[in-house]
Every structure is written in structure tokens, then in C-alpha cells.
Amino acid sequence: MDVTPGATGATRVPSEPVPLPEPQRLGVLSRLAPEPMKVVLNWGRRYSLWVFNFGLACCAIEFIAASMARHDFIRLGVIPFAPGPRQADLMVVSGTVTDKMAPAVKRLYEQMPEPKYVISFGACSNCGGPYWDSYSVTKGVDQIIPVDVYVPGCPPRPEALLQGILKLQEKIARESLHERYGRGASRPSTAALRSGLVTPPPAPGGGAQ
């Protein structure tokens, strides 16, 4: 121990750094799975993305163009038009998110199984776009659900969506199970995602007279 004089007397300063606590474990698989296995799991996730397209405005047409033969994002391992949110890995929010539509977006996001990802496609979905100052438009879908990749444009070209998908796949390849599902994960809790967005009207007979 080193002794450093202070204003009120000697102060003891430890000469060795304090050891950091051991990171949280996720279970037997996290402890026993070798690193190559985790690489294979991430490889499978990045090249098998079932897409749930939440088309709200004109950007949805560009999403459809990206899925057609000319651009063909299926060659990147992206499968469009999942039967529903419970079979989807990736939600693409394309178009203007209004305050009235926001609860539906959030509810469908909650129904998607983990691991799930979100691409915000277009200026309206990113920040409100030309309608950012409207009384009825949500100022970005990231105010209600977590977003992994933002694709700018009004509307973006299909090539921009392909670039956004490649960026998302790069993010999935570097993903750590502990960082995503550990107790210290930065993703919002289920309770936070279920917080009310629009105040429901009072029940008949229960409001102010």
C-alpha cells in the first residue's frame, strides 16, 4: 500500500488495480460454446432474415422494388413478406409513422421473437421527414422501438436499402450474445416498450361531467 499525504492526514492508495467483477453468464451454452460456434450462429442469423415490411407510405414502394428481380435482395439472404411478425427476424419500417399508428408498430414489434432487428427506411421513419412539425406525426420510429440501421432518403432508392441490409449483416456478424442478452444490455425493457403512447378515451360514464 502506498501512503499519500492529504489535507487531513495520510491517505492510503492501493498500489494494485481493483479486479473487475466477472461478466454475467447466460448459462451452460454461453460457457461451453466455442467461439467458432458463435461465429456460425451469427452467420446463420445474418443470411436468414425473414422480413416483416411495415409499409406506411411511398417508401414501401421502394421496398417492393428492392425485392423484385432487378435488385433481388433475396440473394443477400433476405426473405421478404414473412407470414407475420411471429415468423419475422427483421422489421423494415418504411413511411410516415403517425401517433395513431405508433401503438400498432410497437405491438407488432413486441410479437417478433428474439433476435429481432429494425431498419428505419426513409426520412419520415427516421425523423418525421417533411411532416416532422405535424401535430399527428411521430418524430422518428426510434421513439417507440429500438432501431439498428437508418436508411436516409425521401424516398431512398432500392440500392440504399441494399446498403442498409449489408450494414445490418455486418452488425450481426460482430454481435455478442452477452452484450445483447446480458443484464447490462442497452435495449429497452418490455415494460418500457409497452408504455402507453396514446391516452385512451375515458370510459362512458366515468369522465368529467
Structure, explained:
This protein is an alpha/beta fold. It has helices spanning 28-32, 35-46, 59-67, 102-111, 123-127, 158-173, 177-181, 190-193; strands at 2-5, 10-13, 49-55, 78-79, 90-94, 117-121, 149-151. Helix 3 links the parallel strand 3 and strand 4 (78-79). The protein starts with a strand and ends in a 16-residue tail after the last helix. The model is unreliable at 20-28 (pLDDT under 50). NDH-1 is composed of 14 different subunits. Subunits NuoB, C, D, E, F, and G constitute the peripheral sector of the complex. It is an enzyme of class 7 (translocase).
Provide tags for this entry.
single chain; 209 residues; alpha/beta; five-stranded parallel sheet; quinone binding; metal-binding; NADH-quinone oxidoreductase subunit B; iron-sulfur
Write the layout of secondary structure elements.
Elements: E1 2-5, E2 10-13, H1 28-32, H2 35-46, E3 49-55, H3 59-67, E4 78-79, E5 90-94, H4 102-111, E6 117-121, H5 123-127, E7 149-151, H6 158-173, H7 177-181, H8 190-193
Parallel strand pairs: 3-4, 3-5, 5-6, 6-7
Antiparallel strand pairs: 1-2
Helix pairs in contact: 2-6, 3-6
Structural class assignment: alpha/beta
Q: What share of residues are in beta strands?
A: 5-15%
Query: What is the share of helical residues?
Result: 25-40%
Rg value: 23 Å
Low-confidence stretches: 20-28
Q: What is the number of helical segments per DSSP (H or I, 4+ residues)?
A: 8
Q: Using DSSP, what is the number of strands?
A: 7
Subcellular location: Cell membrane
Pfam families: Oxidored_q6
Membrane topology: Peripheral membrane protein
Catalytic activity: a quinone + NADH + 5 H(+)(in) = a quinol + NAD(+) + 4 H(+)(out)
